[in-house]
Amino acid sequence: MMDAAPLLNVLIKYWLPFIAINVVIPALLAPLLDGIERRVRARIQCRRGPPILQTWYDLVKLFRKGAVTGGPIIFRLAPYIAFTVSILTLSLIPTLLNASLSFLGDTIVFMYLLAVPSVIISIGSIYTGSPLASVGSCREVSLWMAYELVFALSVATLAIDRSSLLLRNILPPYPPLHPSTILAIAIIAFLTYAEGGRLPYEIPEAEPELAGGIVLEYGGAELGLVKYALLVKRITLSTLLIDLILPRTWLTSILRSKMWFLGIGQVVVSATYISLLVILSITYSAIEALYGRLRLDQALSVLKKSVIIAGVAVLAALMGY
Amino acid sequence: MGRLGFIKDYLRYGVVTEKYPYEPVPTPETFRGKPVIDSSKCLGCGACVNACPANALSIEDDLRGGIRWVRLFIGRCIYCGRCADACPVGAIELSREFELSALESKDLIQEVGLRMVKCVICGKPFTTYRLVREVMRELSPDERVLTLVCPECRAKLTAVNTSFARW
Amino acid sequence: MGRGDGLYRKSLWVFHMNTGGCNGCDIEVINVLTPWQDVERFGIKLVGSPRHADAILFTGPVTNEVLPRAVRAFMAVPEPKVVVAIGSCACGGGIWHDSYSVLGGIDRFYDYLRKRYGIEPPPTVYVPGCPPRPEAIIYGICLLRGLVKGKQRREVYVEGEVDLSSLKDLLPPDWVVRTDLMRRWVRWFT
Amino acid sequence: MQHSWVTNGCRELVDLLSRYGSVEEVGNAYLVKVRAEDLPEVANELQWGLGGYYSTSVGADFRPIDGTYKLYHIFSVPQCSRYVVTQASLPPSLPKAPSITPVIPGANWGEREVRDMVGIEFEGHPEPKRLVLPHNWPEGIHPLRKDFPYDRKLIIEGVDDEVEHVDELARKYQVVPIGPYHPALHEPEYFELYVDGEVVVEARYKGFMVHRGIEKVAESRMTLNQVPFIAERICGICGFTHSCCYCQAVESALRIEVPERAKYVRTILLEIERIHSHLLWMGVALHVLGFDTGFMAYWRIREPVMRLAEELTGNRKTYGANVVGGVRWDIREDHVEKALRILRRVREECVALTEKVLKIKEVVSRMKGVGYLSREDARRICVVGPTARASGLDIDVRRDHPYAAYGELDFRVPVRDEGDVLARFLVRYEEVLESVSIVEQALQNLPKTPLINEDYEVVPLRIGVGATEAPRGEDVHLVVTGLGNKVYRWRPRAPSYNNIPATLYMLKGAYLADAPIIIASIDPCFSCTDHCLVIDVRSGSSRFVSFRELVRGGYRG
């Protein structure tokens, strides 16, 4: 009891605000960004499109419907695990605040946690025995392995360049901006697009082919959680890209030295972060609207090429470029 | 890049979505919408019932109440307009109304109940007053009385007359 | 509308099920998703799995072959569900209402559900038309969600009491005598 | 002397037919009464000797008339612009005829349908299984026999009992169902794909769930002039072509002269229907390929066409214009102007859009070389329409058997040799442009005659063949007029009927991801096909995958 009090104090003083600002707000923002994306896509298709809040409406409706899914336990649990993990992943990188949970090897943990939601849902779907869902799962897993490889190589490039596995350390500013760093960031930018399950890489769900693929068997709140987990994953990926290009600490310190008000730097960074998120969403959705779906083998051949490029980046980083 | 052409299309055509249901959409004047029976004109002759390919129109005689029901079930109607072609008095027409949805299927029914003439011989209702009136107009005053006799009794009457004549 | 009140006001996912229709309604259903009508603006989305759906669209008179599949898809839609019967086939069996191979519309389908499984019908909107215009489908769904007022009502007209004297102007003056004579004449002989 | 009416060098055909029986000319068709045992030989001569195309088979119960069953096979002989109808009379006790399927594989479904619906047995049929009716339909009941009441509701309760047949394929490969409710289909049809990894090894088809008993209803309940309206509802996309085809069959049977203007109005509406149908298909194809922006764009272009149709006829889809002897709606002067304006814009936008779409790499790469159907296979399965024309078969009813006003208008029939999905896409695209030009010509040359010729008499038991080129291919109707202003026998054969079997050829060896676009590429109109039949290719030895498994997944975990 005696020891718990200061811990609780720390929790209330630092952790709760951190979680509230850095995790909850972006998580709440995620469906909103999806609303923007849907609207942008609609506009490119010359139609009015749904209200910005539409994704929220959808999720609220799904949650109000309650749990409706039956079946094997792993299948039923998968959405909860997926959602929790996706929130955890989000807490590992700086979002609104410059801070994040940071520990040795967090880069690797981040990489793996990012993949957990789709993998766990794939496993759950295989257990349903539905053929379409299993085909979707197979596709999801093949894609995931390709993504993971490319992702690992790009992160390795950055880690080698900065000689650190702490996520905090591989983020900007990059005092010497090496070509390998630029290449790695470019590849990660591509991955944040593709791994977010956007066309032409939206292959596992593939509505017209697999009727929803891996999410086929979910309904009600579980479906909401799966969808929400995907949205959180998307915002995590976008955040990662923003973190890699936005020199947060540099921006904060500059502003702090120039301005009388201490917090202003953080506020500017947060605002920049959110506007970058919106810009990214608009760009991504505009790109998405202009693409058709690739076949799995075609997508894998594109990813193969990016593995080669990422390999080149690693070699370059090793040689000090 | 060919794809960017689609963004150009958006800039060129803009949002084409109509505002319905907040603003009404026009229907062309040729539009074949909800068939409406003009209950003041309908004779209850059943020409439309015979013409209707979908059996959306039906006719039923309530002998006890002496009412002929012409029933239109727009939930079965195929909006072909054959009833309007067939109607001798133009009592049924296709309107331009298309907002026909209802939460209960009974709301999709239009019924016209017409009083029936009781046969002056057997007392059984057999046709509507309006139809009789229409038929009478075509006939000379002397023949008109016969229209108040139902077909069966008319057959009997003819039989009686011929046998009487022979006798 | 009973169950699911307000739940679907902002968001409604529909599962489209052709229960033996001719394709006309099905294409109009797709039509409402496309730029000119774009029902996504009401938060309506077509989904590929009945599990995801809130509403189920019936287009067609429910053929024999489709019936068991329709029942299963119907059951797979989680409660609270709503039903949209699109087109005259789904509303009342349409032109084939009495054919040997169709059940004859959504009401017969409900009868079957009630009899066989003891299921009470969910809130249903009937959208007549052959096929209904896309706007009519939008209207139907808006009616179901309470966004517009329904105007279709059962109309019953009954002619006022009439008797033979109303035909007096056309009949010869001695018509009462004549009809009486006829009546006796026939009665006497038969 | 018997053949004094023979024109345009078709003596060869008539000579051939007269070898087998007496020949009679009915409108655009020759009716030849043959002996049942000659059927395979006649079929062989017509299809492979003369280069004709098998269209369909029709069975009819003539017991109330002359105590026999009649079996008709219909062939199209394009070079003579004639259809050939072979009529064989079969005894009522044990109606059977030699099968022509060994000679023409495309006759497989046609004969099996006759077997189910009328109860004629085919000797030597390679697959003598039930096709039309559900597998648990009672034996010995044939709906199209005249002693079967059309409104006898046989509710098949047993279908949902799970039947688990074990199939060696199902044990070896994963079974992936497409349907019966699948987002790419929009209609309840069922393809079962046996998949090795992502490659389809074998495909099977179970469809005909939209069987509504149209033929029976029309023959029992309807009058001659009500049938056009039920014919229109065979298909909600290409319904007008069906009603037109029916009317032409009756007009040909009863030798009714159709006024010129009516012919032009029919042509205009038929082509408007083709335009909207093809635009619809091109959009759906892109949707299936995941390119929704293209889908939306095609449908955006299509909407004015629909509104034009609504303005011309009063409904967007079911035009309700055709009756025997002519049409009901006229095209007004002010509509002509408007229609020309709309069509000009449709052409412009369609050209611009298709050019853009064809530059999109992943869309084109998913159509090129996919779903290949060789010319020889196409000929053997007797595919029709754009599917045939994309495989190098130069057939088009509009040109080969001119009807309505097509004989007087100038148009081109696009043909491609590649035989893949892209070729089918391009053939349809070119057809849209041709159709726009046809409508423009027809609108500008509308003759000023009455719209309808109602001066005819319904002579019973006359046979007529009607044929139109539906958006999906050749549409053939056979009509036997009946007593009392009715039809005695009416058999519509929709184009998808001949095209669907081709998908099974195309699917073999394809990627699973390509299956939906392959199925979609023939523009299958299942309701057209199913109006009268149900097929179960897998009955007996194969595994029945229950619906729960398809959509909900049979939880076996």
Described by strand count, sense and barrel closure, the largest sheet of chain B is: 4 strands, antiparallel
CATH architectural group of chain B: 2-Layer Sandwich
Strand content of chain B: 15-25%
- For the largest sheet of chain D, list the strands in their spatial order: 1-2-5-4-3
CATH topology of the domain at 225-472 in chain D: Cytochrome-c3 Hydrogenase, chain B
**Which CATH-level-2 architecture of the domain at 225-472 in chain D?**
Orthogonal Bundle
> Helix amount of chain B, in percent?
25-40%
Radius of gyration of chain B: 25 Å
CATH class bucket of the domain at 225-472 in chain D: Mainly Alpha
* Assembly status: heterotetramer
Number of individual domains of chain B? 1
Q: What is the highest CATH level, the class of chain B?
A: Alpha Beta
Instruction: Give the overall pLDDT of chain B as a whole number.
Output: 89
Query: Roughly what is the average pLDDT of chain D, rounded to an integer?
Result: 84
The shape of chain D, in one word, is: globular
Largest interface: B-C, 60 and 66 residues
Strand content of chain D: 15-25%
Walk across the major sheet of chain B and give the strand order: 2-3-5-6
| Rg over C-alpha atoms of chain D, rounded to the nearest angstrom | 23 Å
Instruction: Give the number of DSSP strands of chain D.
Output: 16
Can you offer a commentary on this structure?
The complex is a heterotetramer of chains A (about 325), B (about 170), C (about 190) and D (about 550). Chain A has about 325 residues and is mainly alpha-helical. Chain A contains twelve helices and no strands. Chain A has one domain (about 20-320). Chain A has helices at about 5-45, 55-65, 75-90, 105-130, 130-160, 165-170, 180-195, 205-210, 220-245, 250-260, 265-290, 295-320. The mean pLDDT of chain A is about 85. Chain B has one domain (about 25-165): 2-Layer Sandwich (Alpha-Beta Plaits). Chain B is built from six helices and six strands. Chain D has about 550 residues and is α+β, with helices and mostly antiparallel strands. Chain D contains 20 helices and 16 strands. A five-stranded mixed sheet of chain D has the order 1-2-5-4-3. The longest helix of chain D has 29 residues, at about 260-290. Chain D is globular. Chain D starts with 10 loop residues before the first helix and ends in a 5-residue tail after the last helix. Classes of the chains: A mainly alpha (about 325), B alpha+beta (about 170), C alpha/beta (about 190), D alpha+beta (about 550). Chains in contact: A-B, A-C, A-D, B-C, B-D, C-D. At the A-B interface, loops of A face helix 1 of B.
